[in-house]
Design a protein that fits this description.
Chain A: GO terms for molecular function: hydrolase activity; ligase activity. The structure holds two protein chains of two kinds. Chain A is an alpha/beta fold. Helix content of chain A is about 20%, strand content about 30%. The longest helix of chain A is centred in the N-terminal third of the chain and has 16 residues. Chain B folds into four domains: about 210 residues, P-loop containing nucleotide triphosphate hydrolases (Rossmann fold), CATH 3.40.50; about 160 residues, 3-Layer(aba) Sandwich (Rossmann fold); about 55 residues, no CATH class; about 220 residues, no CATH class. Chain B has 30 helices and 25 strands. A seven-stranded parallel beta sheet of chain B has the order 3-4-2-5-6-1-7, with helices on both faces. The chains are: A alpha/beta, B alpha/beta. The interface between A and B is large, with 29 and 43 residues.
Chain lengths: ~240, ~800
Amino acid sequence: MSVAKLEAADGAFATRLAGADVVFRVSGALWLPGERMLVVADLHLEKGSAYAARGQLLPPYDTRETLNRLEREIATLAPRSVVLLGDTLHDHGASARIAPDERARLAALAEKLRLIWVAGNHDPDGAGDLGGETAQVIKVAGLSLRHEPSPGPADGEVSGHLHPCARISGPAGSIRRRCFASDGSRLILPAFGAYAGGLNLRDPAFTGLFRAPPTGYLLARRVAAVAYEKMRPDHRSPAG
Amino acid sequence: MAKPLRIATSETDPTRQLPPLFQDWFVKRGWALRAHQLGMIDKAKAGADVLLVAPTGGGKTLSGFLPSLIDLAERGPREGRQSLHTLYISPLKALAVDVERNLLTPVREMDLPIVVESRTGDTGQARRQRQKVAPPDILLTTPEQLALFCAWEGARDYFQDLECVIIDEIHAIHGSKRGDLLSLGLARLRTFAPGVRCVGLSATVDDPTRVRRWLSDRGDDIVLGQAGAPAQVEVLLSENRVPWAGHTAQHAMAEVYETIKTARTTLVFVNTRWQAEFAFQELWRLNEDNLPIALHHGSLSAEQRRKVEAAMSRQELRAVVCTSTLDLGIDWGAVDLVIQLAAPKGASRLVQRIGRANHRLDEASRAVLVPASRFEMLECQAAVEAVAENALDGDPPRTGARDVLAQHIMGCACSEPFDLVELYEEVRRAAPYAGLSWEAFEQVVDFVSTGGYALRSYDRFRRIIRGRDGRWRVLNEETARRHRMNVGVIVTAQTLNIRLPGRHGSGRKIGQAEEWYFEQLTPGDSFLFAGEIWRFEGVRGTDAIVTRSTEKEPRVPSWGGSKFALSTFLAKRVRRMMSDETSWSRLPHDVCEWLYAQKAHSSLPGEDDLLVETFSRGKRHYMVCYPFEGRLAHATLAMLVTRRLDRAGVGPIGYLANDYALCVWSLRPMDSLDFDALFQQDMLGDDLEAWLDESFMVKRAFKECALISGLIERRMPGHEKNGRQVTFSADLIYDTLRRHDPDHLLLSCAREDAARGLLDLARLGELLARISGRIRVERLRHVSPFAVPLLMEIGKERAPGTSAADMMLEDAALIGEAMS
């Protein structure tokens, strides 16, 4: 299939999840080629300004950067619909702080394609006045898309919320990267937002969610599959 | 402090110039006032700022304090308002405490009405509070505490009657970010107390006038101490052959042990803590006489270090293996020998270390250098000759870091409202910032206030605000409190506590080490720490859990070279020595043989040119060059050259850089390259820019700048105890900032720091200029004698799983090829 070829060139990783064709993008987005649907989780827009309001003046470019990434994926893949899988906004005040320019870019997206906001714990109201539809759960291609993973193994579930990342080490030191986490039956997406931190896949928060130790699909120059045994725990509390 | 001399009673005895009380005390102790001590008293009488330059053991600290003691004794018991008379600042916490102890002796023996106290990060909350309300006459503290003082409300009142500020070990601090912060603090003190006298105490430095200018812009007074007897420094010539490569000096350890036996107390200096561990273990393996030999380095727990220091001052130890943690500070009169294991990397560092032996001016210090490899043999010989000529290496010139300035400005705003122009004038009185432009200053203030972003969306979130009176003040008390929690510029690598398992979780702490070290360990691995072999059990939170191991050899070796790069000055001497055959007679036979073989098979690097060798070995092609400009500059050069080789189509696979040379290996031959073009200076243009942008070194520098400038807070209220808490990932910020605000202040700070500290760009620039048009290429049929050490290092880095026997066979084959 031509799409698969295109994605291989992009360094993406194509596989199957609970019977559906899925593609893990280097950007951290999930592409469902059959549905022409793009899924991104945990954008945490306006995280920078949330910190700034409390006196820590992080650079105010995170929303701009995250939207750039999203628009790049949309330009490459031409999806029919885009799912924002929850925690798209960092906090309640985010939609009030978001710059007019960036608000307009979101509205333009909602005009151009079907933009669906899945409600998250940081943004229970979903789209609010930013354009697009709001949903709690989306069922598509035999998959079930929601923000928070439901407890215990859940076949065909795609979620976000936990910001998985993995650390691997070699003689030259170690690297820590965001990753897709999947055991072939359920999938947890990496955070897509520029300022979203990561939680090590070996953290207890992931315990009990998978039937088998999950593989990590690390976002590097290409998406690299790494077995659970190869991953190392963090030595400090996760940043962000 | 002062050392006994013959009691002098003649009319010309300077001791007579002291007030009677002090005269009696000197006589009772059997001391005579030294010329430089008198000099310091005279300068104080004249109200002059002054720098005292004297070798260790010259009674330097007492010289600094004498005028204050005399002044306070004459003033008599305090009445009415209590105020601070003298502030003493030392870069070492331990030194502040030690000086307190030493100062109390004259105070007690002369029954002086003087209150002396110390204040460091370890001082309890109650005592700090009391010091704030009732200041002592003399307060002994650290640069970080001064920065904290400056961020207090009421700092101006506290210091307004300050008479004197003394900066000790000024040579060790003035050329660093800590020095920048201290210099800004000094400028602040001079604003609070315009009459304050600044006194600097320094060991011998190459350029005293520069250090003097750093101290203050008032006058240029310098007092020189009496030079000590010349040091006796020798290079240890081992019975065993000098190794081709390596850092441990294992071959000479038995001789080191024998040398220790000839002295009363020995300090054994090494360059890294892992070398310290190794040497300590080796010495104890040989220690048939059960000599009390101890270990001291920065990773050991403070309690353990204190124990060693205490045993040392009770003169119970015969030797201490130590790192730069003992370069400075506490006087141990009993040390009569210093051994430097592996090359010292700089003449000044060597002098400083030699000075640790024998704090008496009338006896020569004795020191022995133990080179760990052949190149180090050349370096040690050059260092010994430099010390004999009293030639020291200088520090590169430095301008004050703007991330440090940002922290200082925020501190000022937390203390009291400031006027922008007044603060600008004050800041420029700090020597590192003398050349700061108004625009640059305003940019830093804007950064402190709004983050200084091109996108002006944070004007509503200012941290400091301009009031109607035109003065700038901190937004609120909460912001000030958070700033005070994050004062200081010491950004340490993430470390883990090394602990035994306890009944409930983690047990006793043995020490700490950098996180990266544990990343290469797998549970079950054994390693060397605090002189014992431990089994690594795993990491729990911020603890690395270990148990005692029964293994005889640690399974994970911890080799690794020096953390210091070879100084420019010493490098030049090494090159000169190599090109001057007549000087070889001072070298051991096997090293001479090696030099002659290099001359016969290839050629020797000249004093001012660059020797490049190409040869093939196995399926690989090698290029080795010998600039002798230090590890950092070489690594940068290797990185840039590799990019060019890649474009030239030779398929470079890897590179290696050490203090003396660098080596690149590739898939295709390199002998027909245009080497003049390859090493052309323009590589510092676009190639450098392109590489810098993706370099992890700039990222690392950025993180430090972000922490120092306050962009990222290390500590948040509620996390006081956990100094490791970093609230946000610096890498995420770096990537975003680079893309959207490439001219931001902190990016430029990070690039500057990386260029200066991590990449040594200035030195690389000088190197490329020096060798331009002077590149000598030797196209060889096989590996040269000089290239052997590098190829051995490559072997060790590449194949950690290879058995020791395989490695020795490989090394032997290499040497055979090179020397045949």
